[in-house]
Amino acid sequence: MLLATLLFSSVAKANEWAIETADDWATSVETVSGATLADGSVSPTGQFARLSTIVHTSDQKLSARSLRIEQSPIWQNWNPIENLGPANLADAPVLLTVGPNDYWMFGRYRAAKTKGKKGQGKVPPQPIKPQPATLEGFDVPLLTTPFPNQYDAPGGLQPGRGGYHAWQSRDMKHWVHHGPVTEGFSKWVTSAEWVDGKAYIYYDFPNDQDPHVYVDDDLFDGVPGKNMGLAVKDPSHGSDAGFIRDLEGNMHVIIEDWTPISANKRSWDSPLAGHAVSSNGIDDFRFMDPPVDHRTNPTGKIGKYKHPHWMKEDPENYPTNVAEYDIHHPEQEAYGDWAAICVGGQYYLFGDYDPVGGHQMSVGWFTAPSINEPFTWCGNIGNGHPDPDIAFAEGRFYLATQQSTDFVSPGPWVETVEARVGVDTNNDQVIDQWTDWDEVKERYDYIPGFSKQIKRTPATMDSSELPAGFGFQVQLRLTDSTDNPSKPIIDRMTLVFAN
After folding, report:
1. What's the burial of 149, exposed, middle or buried (CB within 10 Å: 0-12/13-18/19+)?
2. d(CA 176, CA 156)
3. Buried (b) or exposed (e) across 252-284, using 16+ Cβ within 10 A?
4. Side by side, which strands form the sheet with 396-400?
5. Full DSSP string of 391-432
6. By percentage, how much of the chain surpasses pLDDT 90?
7. Which of 67, 226, 255, 365 could form a disulfide with 350 if both were Cys (CB 3.0 to 4.6 A apart)?
8. Residue environment code for 443-465, b if the CB has 16+ CB neighbours within 10 A, otherwise e
């Protein structure tokens, strides 16, 4: 009886049994193999892991309704793919999901090029007469182009204006060109959002300075929308801002703050990010606490650097290209070109990562349970200066960069997690009946009216088939089924009882 008593938890009457803290895991796990318990989670050490809890007891009969499992939010489940989007999209890509089967990508329009003779570089291809075409999901006249899987709609035949263009896809494979969405002076597009049936397209003016915005209610016409002008008056230098609308309709911007760094020496990135919020996304942005702040020690000294575009593009407001910054020591990590997405209330920031030392750039990302809290570092992937953006499409998450490799993920959840629940029906401290083993996983879906807010359905197993009982036990089988560095790390496990 002594051993049985030690294996049983204390009497509880709550309608759920939650294991989430480091103490919870330490006191609630009976056996574990192939995994470690650390930092409030269960983490596999190899490809396979097994875990069995103690038996959770009650002084009255309870009915187990469901088991809910939550994983670590670090989201390392990414796989490389070939470049997303149109073959002739140039500069930093900007993604916008309007809804299911309605995906947009913005970038500069690059003319077709082919390899010439040795020493001649690339030359324009022989003219190809466009031919009428049809594409599933599109009911407008289309023409073929020199580019694979790419077509011109009527808006795509409008003359370019020196800025960004719009392409639309129903499947993230075939792209229809709808023409210009910004102009030459507004060519530094950094982000886009969807608000009440309109696209908000944000651009820096001048480069690496205050975000401005177009409101475009017709992305099909090949004409830029209404230029609303200055959106965010940022007191610091640096921008490359990412915008995200929360579920209450407020627009948030994450913006580079070059105050503590000579940005010209660090890929125009910074250890410090700013955060501002507006009720309409057009003006009246209020600055909040920084979401990312990896500054080192200020020296009290002031340094200077030059930017190549400020005076040239906006001499009225920028009579000099010289900027000052607070010198810090030791060398600082640098991040920027921000892009944001929220999955079931968990916020993620993706951006450039220029590390100390060798400065081998890649995509880095951070996470927080609220956009108003400090974000924590998750990891990095890829190689080169990415200028990334992220979107949910076709049931997956796409991470686009300006490099030769992009990335795709099924979501933060990592496979494979199997579970079963057992019940002691007669209070003899022995499990009498188990559910079948069942694989559980999170599900993701669109939220109507929002581009970057993604619905998350928790990984849940139905245990209501079990009879009522006085004790309950959970067993897990974890298998690292991915080819990437991710693994199924369990942060929280909750057994819910019927009321």
Report:
1. middle
2. 8
3. bbbbbbbbbbbbeebbbbbbbbbbbbbeebbee
4. 79-82, 405-409, 396-400, 389-393
5. EEETTEEEEE-SSSEEEEES-S--S-EEEEEEEESSSSSS--
6. 92
7. 365
8. ebebeeebbbbbebebbbbebee
Separation of first and last alpha carbons in the chain: 31
Both tokens of 384, joined, read: 């080169």
Residue with tokens 């001048």: 206
Task: List strand residue ranges (DSSP E) for 209-291, in order.
Answer: 211-216, 226-230, 242-245, 251-257, 272-278, 286-287
Gap between the Cα atoms of 106 and 95, Å rounded: 6
CA atoms of 249 and 239, how far apart (whole Å)? 22
Helix (H) or strand (E) holding 380: strand 376-381
**Positive or negative: CA dihedral 435, 438, 440, 445:** negative
Residue 39 identity (one-letter amino acid):
D
Determine how β-strand 453-457 pairs with β-strand 334-343: parallel
Q: Which tokens hold the place of 72?
A: 């670590």
C-alpha closest to that of 279 among 243, 251, 244? 251
What are the tens digits of pLDDT across the range 193-249? 999 999 999 999 999 999 999 999 999 999 999 999 999 999 999 999 999 999 999
The residue type of 159 is P
Instruction: Give the residues across from 31 on adjacent strands.
Output: 52
Q: How many Å is the maximal CA-CA distance in the chain?
A: 87
* Mean local confidence (pLDDT), 39-66: 96
Tokens at residue 63, please? 């009915």
Residue 220 has what DSSP assignment? T
Q: Which amino acid is at 259?
A: T
Contact 348, 365 (CB under 8 A): yes
